[in-house]
Design brief:
Layout: E1 2-9, H1 18-22, E2 41-44, E3 49-54, H2 60-72, E4 99-105, E5 123-128, E6 135-138, E7 141-144, H3 147-156, E8 160-162, E9 172-174, H4 175-178, H5 189-200, H6 207-218, H7 224-247, H8 253-264, H9 267-285, E10 298-304, E11 307-313, E12 319-321, H10 327-345, E13 351-355, H11 363-377, E14 387-391, E15 406-411, E16 418-421, H12 432-436, E17 449-453, H13 456-473, E18 485-489, H14 496-504, E19 513-517, H15 521-530, E20 546-548, H16 549-556, H17 575-587, H18 602-610, H19 615-626, H20 634-647, H21 654-682, H22 684-698, H23 705-718, H24 725-738, H25 752-763, H26 765-775, H27 778-791
Parallel strand pairs: 3-14, 3-15, 8-13, 13-14, 17-18, 17-19, 19-20
Antiparallel strand pairs: 1-2, 1-4, 4-5, 5-6, 6-7, 9-11, 10-11, 11-12, 15-16
Organism: Gordonia asplenii
Protein name: AAA family ATPase
Length: about 800
């Protein structure tokens, strides 16, 4: 059973649907009140994940409350009635309550037992009309249910589960409290330290002096701030308990054993128990899989007096408390633990509700959370998934592969209240710009994996078709993962080499990059520069990561329209589909009644293509000739194509377009994956640092010349793929000469401390060279040389 729609009327900022009531084509359904007609605001939900966005005060969080009220019938209060509604009244017989409806779709095997009106229903809506009796609507027919039937129906509906998004994992937790003992202020480490500091300050303390110092520290403070701090502490403690007992599945008896071992001073047993607890956390949570910012980090417990402290060990092997790290990991762990613990007790799919979980997470952390939510909605083990509805302000918590999941809420003028922007996905995220305060789609900044394309139209078509194909297949296999791949429009083929250089040439960490070029002259020229043109000495991008459309099309085995020679991305568009999209574009500027239907025949485009023109040139010239004074841009054509695929997916030519882009996107995805794998495997800076780190760990007092020679050989190989191989080779040769490694008369390297410093410096060589290169004025050297030549 899946919740497919929520209907809301007169609830807080939701008044009623002004747009539906204003449309002549919209009429009340047979079961609705007609005089006056106040249509419900309807918010459709996806069967897996729905992302709700909107400006502040647009009603996003109120939607979550409405879902709960519609499902349970609880918390429907008079004070929540929309204050600016014309139906808000205090007169007798006119006092109303907010009204809700929830629509469900059942699987073929599901049936509502004990509710005869729903025995054969595959879809129904349960309405809770404020102070009136609940009823259901099936196939447009209103049915009254008895109280018993309503209760039976309510028992079958999915539960909701809400994450506490404002509570993080604490730095430490009391062991005594974990085993059920009553907590006192002495269980707080800071309190104990404060008391001991006071006691140590007494030279010759009397019993009275000790009592006077300690008593205030033990007394319970009764004020609002302290009570609020205690409520927060209890929430954090419950989260820690959930992590240890529910998620990590640690037997509570282990804490009793640990407590007794600590009290008895049995350090070996303490280490054994805590070590086993850390193993349980690692095995049962597997957080490293989801936290991509450091896949080598560990969540480590440490026993400290009467507490268990939570610490983080990162990729460097260093250990930090939560207070020494960013808040992002604490809150990510909080969300992850709550979900993991809930899954263990979950008996059936439910509806997860989240209100702005992005507040404490970085952009990367938000993407990690998005993957966790995806697994919650569609478990990898094949079990039934739950629905997820979340509210966000962040573009990084939106799955760009699935624009159909987005619901944009907007606050109408005056008494209109909250409304749904129904065309958010079709307009390719345009309404999100004002809602989120940023450009979400088709806005590139160099990221983890980068696909460089020549123009905006390439960017729009690739991103849009990838989302479209991902939605149709439901798997995302063979298309681009737009949450990981940034599509960068260079503004022309000649701009691609420099943008790729900016992405890869100025740091030791080089993100995977692939360039998609047209097969025309400018594309071939850009290819030469990327592959190290005649005037360039440095290769910008390896040949296998340059995709030229004409070469790809020839090797693809695809069939294209007669006469079409694929050179640019528009050549992949079937002519009849391009023709139809161009007509749609024209209607945005010219009334349909004013368009001469015979002026722009498909045959005019086909003829121009047969004479050797590209698809775009043929379309553009025919369009201008048929409609004087009008013109079409490539981006405009791309947007109309995507809108056409959304509204009429079976239109002639759509299948051919999808098939061609499936092939292209699958190829680009494969090339990007290969580039990513190679970068991870061959990153010279990582190899150098690893070799230096091993040397420093294994050789603290000295090294033989044989081992030193082997080390330098390893470093030479590690620098082989670096742009600084020549300078690195020179310095390695200098080390070999200074420390006489070829002299076999003495076996050990002399002046070992200086040798260590020289090797350490090599470990930082590449990073420093990139920094120095970025701060140099290379043109000065050229100009100085030119002046010297003139003077000479």
């Amino acid at each position: 059973m899946k919740l497919t729609r929520v209907d809301i009327r007169f609830f807080r900022s939701f008044n009623f649907d002004f747009e539906r009531s204003a449309r002549d084509s919209c009429k009340p359904e047979s079961w609705e009140e007609e005089d006056p007609w106040y249509p419900f605001v309807r918010i459709p939900l996806e069967p897996d994940i729905t992302a709700v966005v909107g400006a502040n005060e647009s009603g996003k969080s109120q939607l979550l409350a409405a879902i709960k009220a519609g499902l349970t019938g609880n918390n429907i209060h008079r004070e929540d009635f929309c204050r600016y509604s014309s139906e808000y009244s205090v007169q007798a017989d006119q006092i109303r309550l907010p009204e809700f409806g929830v629509t469900f779709k059942l699987d073929e095997s599901e049936q509502i037992a004990g509710v005869s009106p729903l025995a054969d229903a595959r879809e129904f809506t349960l309405y809770r009309p404020g102070s009136g009796d609940a009823f259901v609507v099936v196939d447009g027919t209103r049915m009254k249910l008895s109280t018993s039937q309503i209760n039976k129906l309510a028992a079958t509906l999915p539960d909701t589960f809400s994450l506490q998004t404002g509570v993080a994992i604490p730095d430490s937790v009391s062991i005594a409290e974990l085993i059920g003992k009553k907590r006192t202020r002495l269980h707080d480490r800071r309190q104990r330290v404060g008391i001991l500091d006071k006691l140590f300050g007494l030279n010759d303390p009397t019993e009275a002096e000790v009592a006077e110092l300690i008593a205030p520290s033990l007394a319970t403070v009764q004020d609002e701030a302290t009570e609020e701090a205690e409520r927060r502490r209890r929430a954090e403690f419950e989260l820690a308990r959930m992590l240890l007992i529910d998620a990590a599945r640690i037997d509570p008896r282990a804490f009793t054993e640990l407590n007794e071992a600590l009290a008895s001073g049995r350090e070996g047993q303490v280490e054994a128990v805590v070590g086993a607890m850390n193993t349980a956390i690692r095995d049962n949570l597997n957080v490293q899989r989801w936290w991509t910012q450091d896949r080598e980090f560990d969540l480590i417990l440490e026993a400290r007096e009467h507490e268990l402290a939570f610490t983080i060990r990162d990729r460097t092997g260093s250990t930090y408390s939560f207070g020494e790290r960013s808040q992002g990991l604490r809150y990510f762990l909080s969300y992850f633990v709550q979900l993991a613990a809930h899954r263990l007790t979950q008996t059936s799919p439910d509806i997860l509700l989240l209100d702005e979980p992005d507040a404490f997470l970085s952009s990367v952390g938000q993407q990690d959370l998005l993957r966790v939510l995806q697994e919650y909605a569609e478990p990898e083990d094949g079990k039934p998934g739950s629905q997820v509805v979340y509210v966000t302000h962040s573009p990084f918590l939106i799955d760009k592969n699935s624009p159909q999941r987005i619901r944009v809420l907007d606050k109408g003028a005056e008494d209109e209240g909250t409304r749904v922007v129904n065309d958010a996905a079709n307009n390719r995220y345009e309404p999100l710009r004002s809602s989120l305060g940023t450009h979400v789609a088709e806005t590139a900044f160099i990221g983890g994996q980068n696909l460089f394309v020549e123009g905006l139209a390439d960017q729009v078509l690739i991103a849009g078709l990838s989302s479209h194909l991902s939605e149709r297949s439901g798997t995302g296999v063979g298309v681009l993962n737009l949450n990981e791949v940034t599509i960068v429009a260079a503004g022309g083929a000649d701009g691609i080499p420099y943008l790729v250089y900016l992405a890869r040439g100025r740091d030791t960490i080089k993100p995977p990059c692939v360039a998609l070029l047209d097969g025309d002259e400018s594309g071939r020229d850009a290819e030469k520069v990327l592959k190290r043109g005649e005037a360039r000495k440095k290769r910008v991008l390896r040949e296998e990561y340059i995709v030229r459309l004409d070469q790809w099309a020839t090797a693809s085995g695809l069939e294209f329209d007669p006469g079409v020679n694929v050179l640019e991305i528009e050549d992949l568009i079937p002519l009849e589909l391009a023709h139809r999209a161009a007509l749609s574009h024209l209607t945005r500027f010219v009334g349909i009644a004013d368009i001469d239907r015979t002026a722009f025949p498909l045959s005019s485009i086909e003829t121009a293509v047969s004479e050797g023109k590209s698809v775009w040139d043929a379309l553009d010239s025919a369009y201008r000739e048929s409609f004087p004074g009008e013109h079409i841009e490539k981006v405009g054509l791309a947007r109309e194509l995507l809108l056409l695929l959304d509204t009429a997916p079976t239109v002639p030519g759509a299948d051919a377009l999808r098939h061609r882009f499936e092939k292209l996107l699958s190829h680009l995805s494969s090339v990007l994956d290969r580039a990513a794998v190679e970068e991870n495997q061959s990153r010279s800076d990582d190899k150098v640092k690893r070799a230096v780190k091993n040397f420093l760990r294994n050789h603290k007092k000295g090294i033989s010349k044989r081992e030193a020679t082997r080390l330098l050989r390893e470093l030479t190989d590690a620098f082989a793929s670096s742009d600084w191989i020549d300078e690195a080779t020179r310095q390695i040769g200098e080390i070999r000469r200074v420390y006489e490694l070829n002299d076999s008369s003495s076996p050990a390297v002399h002046d070992f401390s200086e040798f260590r410093k020289a090797i350490q410096a090599l470990g930082e060589k590449e990073r420093l060279e990139y920094q120095d290169d970025a701060s140099k004025d290379p043109a000065a050297q050229i100009l100085e040389a030119a002046h010297e030549d003139e003077d000479g």
